[in-house]
Amino acid sequence: MAPPLLEVEDLTVRFDTTAGVVKAVTGVSYTLEAGETLAVVGESGSGKSVHVLAMVGLIPKPPGRIERGTAKFEGRDLLTMNERELRALRGGKIGMIFQDPMSSLNPVLTVGFQIAEPLREHLKLSRKAAMARAVELLDLVGIPEPHRRVHQYPHQFSGGMRQRAMIAIGISCEPKLLIADEATTALDVTVQAQILDLVRKLKKQFGMAMIWITHDMGVVAGLADNVQVMYGGRIMERGPARDVFHDSRSAYTWGLLNSLPDHDDPGGQAGERAKRLTQIPGYPPNMLDPPAGDPFAPRNPYATERCFVEMPPLVQAKDAAPGHLVAAWYDLRAVRAQGATA
Amino acid sequence: MSATVQAQEPILRVEDLSRHFITRNPLGKEVHRVRAVDGVSFTIAPGETLGLVGESGSGKSTTGRLVLRLDDPTDGKIHFEGQEISTLHRTALRRMRQRMQVVFQDPFSSLNPRMRVGDAVAEPLLAHGVVRSRAERREKVAELFRRVGLEPGFAERFPHQFSGGQRQRIGIARAIALSPQLIVADEPITALDVSIQAQIVNLFMDLQEEMGVAYLFIAHDLAMVRHLCHRVAVMLRGRIVEMAPTRKLFANPLHPYTQALISAMPIPDPDKEQARQRLFYEGGAPPAEARLKEVEPEHWVLG
């Protein structure tokens, strides 16, 4: 079997601040196969973005530092590479799309120039060939009149078109790995749906692997082969998307899915009181001083004594699909079954 | 059931409300006009939640600001508790604001970082002379904190000591301090963590049950809107294109734009999400001469 495209081992990231050390990411390990789409789900402070940005050398150091761990991309450790080596990968074999296209596109350069730049840098195309390819890429991501649009500036594009242009830049060098950090979060739902359709199409066409960082479970459901749920800087659960959604083994994943409004809810009407949503009690942990054991334990009704003192390892869940991992001292299925009969 | 609500005098009646942003050349001649809100009409009954949905730039937030009188309409009327408020001046506006409050999207920027949160919540009470003594004020703030699910002892702390969800609770405590009849909530859960959104939506529902407050709930998360709102109005380029009781709107969306919007809702279930049929809207801006028509009881469509 070919070695995995990306192999992350015990990645641990800290930020030294005046208020103390922020324990942003702790002991994150996973592998990503070529062509796999992994959704990394979590809320602010979960470490979902930071751990990926740390791998590609995009966290400011200081205050950030990588305390330990390795992240091997095609067998080479990204964490020991120098800036020049990382630069050669970013925008080349590793493409990236960020949340806010307005602030990640340069306002004084034409969109075409910005798509052509990585092509000239990484693929050594001539200026003319790169611009011709930029037109093709704009066409590919569904921007009408690409010949005219290629000479325009970002402010002449709508929000959805800017995000399409960002995707064109992200895929321009046909990366092996595309990292998307909340890439559709700022978009309207109809535009988001179009962008997701586009990403699915491009994935089929180019066969690249993707790490899709989001907090939106709906987006995850439409896109991911595998889902990795993070909380308090750690991986709480990981597995095939269907299994994580329909057979959640982490109390956090389960609580999160349960707190969403029911999709079959017919909706309210006058004079009728809506059902209460099933809320998760409490608040996310303070990462300056995270709980000693399982970070979700203080909010978890099923937490055992051990959960409060010792972080459980991420292991194969009992009687679950192969590759469905969970970090839990409790057995969610057993305690829920008990709760139902009690 | 709905007949009882209709029989009541609406608490808010907005008629043909418009806000145009006009660019003029140095000679005062109009060169460009953006119709941010263009002839919008709706009502809200006491204790009712009206959802206002649409994409960015559809005019939904501007509508909220006009209702709050944070912005002046170009045209149209706003009746609140039977009084025409679109032309009110300072003193009368102040009185009105006891009865109509706002909750913003970003609980970070809506709290003064140098003010203890208890003082921030007490501010409207002092400004409107509701509390007289220090002791009375402390007691009232403690009661408000408990009501929104915060420990009264937190009143002595500063905003940076709270998480986003807690800050939004503080913002809500401040909004309900004067027992308003209407709260305009502009994307109140958008900036919150997913695990916190349900808490805040439940809080909105509890407060409505306890106080009978009505909400104008401006949001783009259609799943939450469907859950929380009694009626929904859909905006497109400054116009309301469809308005109906929530159940009718989602079961039978009639305007092609509403259909596209509902079909684009992501479903948090891989099987359903991947089988979802999408509809597209390519109609552009609604024609100027189009008017809302009642196609079935309480179900209005622009046509």
Spell out the key features of this protein:
heterodimer; A: alpha/beta; Rossmann fold; 2 domains; 8-stranded mixed β-sheet; 4-stranded antiparallel β-sheet; 33% helix; globular; B: alpha/beta; 11 helices; disordered N terminus
Give the helix/strand layout.
The complex is a heterodimer of chains A (342) and B (303).
Chain A: E1 6-17, E2 20-32, E3 37-41, H1 48-55, E4 64-73, E5 76-77, H2 83-89, E6 94-97, H3 101-104, H4 111-123, H5 127-140, H6 146-149, H7 159-171, E7 177-181, H8 189-206, E8 209-214, H9 217-223, E9 226-231, E10 234-240, H10 241-246, H11 251-259, E11 315-316, E12 325-326, H12 332-341
Parallel strand pairs in A: 3-8, 3-9, 6-7, 7-8
Antiparallel strand pairs in A: 1-2, 1-4, 4-5, 9-10, 10-12, 11-12
Helix pairs in contact in A: 4-5, 4-7, 5-7, 7-8
Chain B: H1 2-7, E1 12-24, E2 30-44, E3 49-53, H2 60-67, E4 75-80, E5 83-84, H3 90-99, E6 100-103, H4 117-127, H5 134-147, H6 164-176, E7 182-186, H7 194-211, E8 214-218, H8 222-228, E9 231-236, E10 239-245, H9 246-251, H10 256-263, H11 270-275, E11 292-296, E12 299-302
Parallel strand pairs in B: 3-8, 3-9, 6-7, 7-8
Antiparallel strand pairs in B: 1-2, 1-4, 4-5, 9-10, 10-12, 11-12
Helix pairs in contact in B: 4-5, 4-6, 5-6
